[in-house]
Design goal:
It is a single chain. It contains 16 helices and 17 strands. With 514 residues, it is α/β, with parallel strands linked by helices. It has a six-stranded mixed beta sheet, with helices on both faces. The chain has a six-stranded mixed beta sheet with strand order 13-14-15-12-16-17, sandwiched between helices. Helix 8 runs antiparallel to helix 9 and helix 15 (469-477) packs parallel to helix 16.
């Protein structure tokens, strides 16, 4: 059993309360997903559960962590710089129980993760592994230490479809507790039986945490229905209150007018009007009490709002891309990734490139971006997988989006940032202090402000919450221009992309065409 009692977490820098007096219990067999918008403290919560000392340098935490005889295994969102420089062999050697395992045990665990047993002794540097390989190697090291609780921070990031399906099976078959963060809605729908929702309401000034023992789809359905019902009740009560207030106002004004006009020679009428005024004020107090007891209009952390290029239509006959590559080389030029790549895109096509990790998808999309960004006959914009390629972390979000830096533009930018759920403080923070999801939103906003007619997107939804993802997908689906993308997001592929190509070592295989 894993129990958290009365946990509160406050960010030291801006004194923002991320989590307030939160308690929950997880038992073996629970697969609990933590959801919430970017910057709400999901990763901080997971780190604190694993080791409170990890978050001491940037947050103030209080509460009780009861783990009894459980053994915790933690998968961070990113490898540390120190681990990136290690060989795979060195990484495994640091496991507490590696030397105690027999060859039979090592082979069994490697097979469980669809890895060759030789992986334990590989001299390959950790940083050079593909996204899927990194996840599997880290999970394999965790399993060596025989954890009963797995704490997984974004295990679905940067892994291909085949590995995603493997990860679903792995989570579902793990006999202990799994507590994980993910932005992959399909993974969440297929694995989670407990939903932990962290919200920041009242304009991000109040933390609210909800725990429901149900599937993600059922949670969203019940939550939306409850919110609709609560809103209907609250609006009806306010409508009735407004009618009552109007009646009271007319009665009050009538009595007040009569009091002003009553003759001093008619004390009986004066006393009667005084009693009526007293009764009216009593009625007013009753209305005030009823107001306090009204159902509240739902206060929730809404998903962001975004819209792409209303005037970015592109002619159907316009050639957007006519690509032919004999050999796609890895960036350092030491290895051929794929041969015989041909891709032709015309008009407002929405194309997605998929493929196994390490096949060169990001390398290819960068080649395409370099070609199209230099075209004078197109207005292309590029969202890389590595945000630092186009973002200067020293800037503020407002500065990053500014072109003219005049007052009118600054006001407009702040309005747009507000629609993306940035607070006033976050608008003036250095971008380096923002979460990955907030940076993703910032780039998407820049794209939406650009009036581009071609968007080149490398994993555009990888850092967006399960509540923001549907908003972005709908906006991209309605985008009138062309989209060339790389993604492993199955909902993005199904809802946005008309054509899907799988990149292999021998070029493209068409997987879907509308």
């Amino acid at each position: 059993m894993l129990q958290i009692k009365n946990l509160s977490i406050t960010h030291n820098k801006d004194l923002k309360t991320l989590i307030d007096d939160f308690s929950f219990v997880l038992n073996p067999g629970d697969k609990a997903v933590i959801i919430g918008e970017e910057g709400n403290g999901k990763s901080t919560l997971l780190k604190w559960i694993y080791d409170p000392e990890i978050v001491e340098d940037y947050s103030d935490c209080s509460g009780e962590r009861i783990i009894h005889n459980e053994r915790l295994g933690y998968l961070p969102q990113e490898l540390s710089d120190a681990d990136k420089d290690k060989t795979v062999c060195e990484f495994f050697m640091e496991s507490n129980l590696f030397s105690d395992k027999s060859p039979k045990d090592l082979n069994r665990l490697a097979a469980q993760l669809s890895l060759d047993a030789d992986i334990y002794y590989s001299g390959q540097v950790m940083a050079s592994l593909s996204g899927g390989e990194k996840i599997k190697v880290q999970l394999l090291r965790l399993l060596l230490d025989e954890p009963t609780v797995l704490l997984l921070d974004e295990p679905s990031n940067d892994i291909d479809l085949k590995t995603l399906e493997w990860l679903e099976d792995f989570i579902n078959s793990f006999p202990g507790i799994v507590l994980f963060i993910s932005h992959d809605e399909v993974l969440i729908e297929r694995t989670a039986n407990v939903v932990i929702h962290i919200e920041q309401v009242r304009r991000k000034t109040v933390s609210r945490c909800t725990v429901k023992r149900t599937t993600f789809a059922e949670y969203v359905s019940i939550r939306n229905a409850n919110l609709r019902n609560q809103e209907i009740i609250a609006l009806n009560q306010r409508r009735e209150a407004k009618i009552q207030e109007e009646k009271f106002r007319r009665i009050y004004q009538k009595i007040e007018s009569a009091q002003n006009n009553v003759s001093r020679q008619d004390p009986h009428s004066g006393r009667l009007l005084k009693k009526k005024m007293h009764a009216a004020k009593s009625l007013e107090h009753r209305y005030e009490r009823e107001k306090e007891e009204m159902a509240e209009i739902p206060d929730l952390e809404e998903a962001m709002y975004i819209r792409f290029g209303g005037s970015s239509a592109i002619p159907a006959e316009k050639t957007v891309l006519d690509l032919s590559i004999d050999q796609l080389m890895c960036p350092d030029g030491t290895r051929v990734l794929a041969k015989g790549i041909n891709l032709f895109i015309r008009g407002s096509e929405k194309v997605c490139v998929i493929g196994e990790n390490g096949t060169g998808k990001s390398t290819l999309i960068k080649v395409i971006a370099d070609m199209l960004l230099s075209r004078a006959d197109l207005r292309a914009m590029y969202m890389p997988q590595n945000y630092s390629d186009i973002i200067d972390d020293r800037l503020t979000p407002v500065d990053f989006l500014s072109v003219t830096f005049d007052k009118e533009e600054q006001t407009r930018i702040r309005t747009y940032l507000g629609s993306m759920k940035y607070t006033a403080d976050e608008m003036d923070h250095r971008i380096a202090e923002l979460s990955g999801g907030q940076k993703a939103k910032l780039i998407l906003l820049k794209l939406s402000m650009s009036d581009a007619n071609v968007l080149i997107l490398d994993e555009p939804t990888r850092n967006l919450s399960p509540l923001s993802g549907p908003v972005v997908r709908q906006a991209l689906r309605n985008y009138p221009g062309a989209i060339i993308s790389v993604s492993h997001d199955r909902k993005f592929m199904n809802e946005v992309c008309g054509t899907i190509y799988e990149l292999t070592s021998n070029g493209f295989k068409k997987q879907k065409e509308e």
